[in-house]
Amino acid sequence: MNNFVGLSAVLTGFAQGVIAPSIDPINVKAEYFAKFQAETGNNLFSQILSDFQTLNTPPKEGQTQEEKNQEIGETILANSDYEMPCRNLIFLWYSGAWPTIIPANGAKPASTISTLLSSKSYTQGLVWQVMQSHPMGDSNYRYGYWQNTPADLNKYTGNNDKTTSKWQQ
Question: DSSP 3-state assignment of 136?
Fold first, then answer.
């Protein structure tokens, strides 16, 4: 689970403490872990997490953690076997749904459909934090919160660095 959370943090740009808080009564990470494993298959799932563990070393001298995470993400996504499963994992964390790509067929272009895992996965999608909003019908914010200027995005992502990585551009 630690490698899964670490990989998820690197791929999404969110801090591990946001992906998997120390007090986590919702525990959406377990649902995502099981879905990612089921969809990728045990062998590929294990290979991806093993490679992440190998790459997940302390930053080199003069390298920030954000730069190290960027390096890890680029290396993982450069592997053609890992690219689509990892992109699907990113989609899952942001939307709470697993995507299925339907290839082009004659006159019909390729399309993507997604299957929502649960109401819990919907409300916990990272997209809501990026938008500094909340899903319809579910909010932890007090009535009238929208009249205040939202906090900096790094308060939602858990990253202290205010710079924008090339993934987030």
Answer: coil
Task: Report the C-alpha gap between 39 and 34 in whole angstroms.
Answer: 9
Compute the distance between CA of residue 112 and CA of residue 59 in angstroms, rounded to an integer: 37
Residue the block writes with tokens 């890992």: 82
Query: 144 in the Ramachandran plot: left (φ > 0), alpha (ψ -120 to 50) or beta?
Result: left
Please list, in sequence order, all residues whose beta carbon lies within 8 angstroms of the beta carbon of residue 53, skipping any fewer than 6 positions away: 3
Amino acid identity at 144: G
Q: Range with the lowest mean pLDDT among 45-54, 59-68, 74-83, 133-142? A: 133-142
Q: Where are the alpha helices (DSSP H) in 24-157?
A: 28-40, 42-55, 65-78, 80-95, 119-123, 126-130, 153-157
Q: Quote the tokens at residue 3.
A: 């490698």
Through-space distance between the first and last CA atoms of the chain, rounded to whole angstroms = 29
Report yes or no: 100 and 113 within 8 Å, Cβ to Cβ: yes
Parallel, antiparallel or unpaired: strands 97-102 and 111-116: antiparallel
Q: pLDDT digit string (tens) for 110-167?
A: 888 899 999 898 889 898 888 877 777 666 666 676 677 776 767 666 776 554 444 4
Q: What is the pTM of this model?
A: 0.82
Q: How far apart are CA 37 and CA 164, in angstroms?
A: 30
Considering Cα of 61, then 67, then 71, then 72, what sign does the dihedral take? Answer: positive
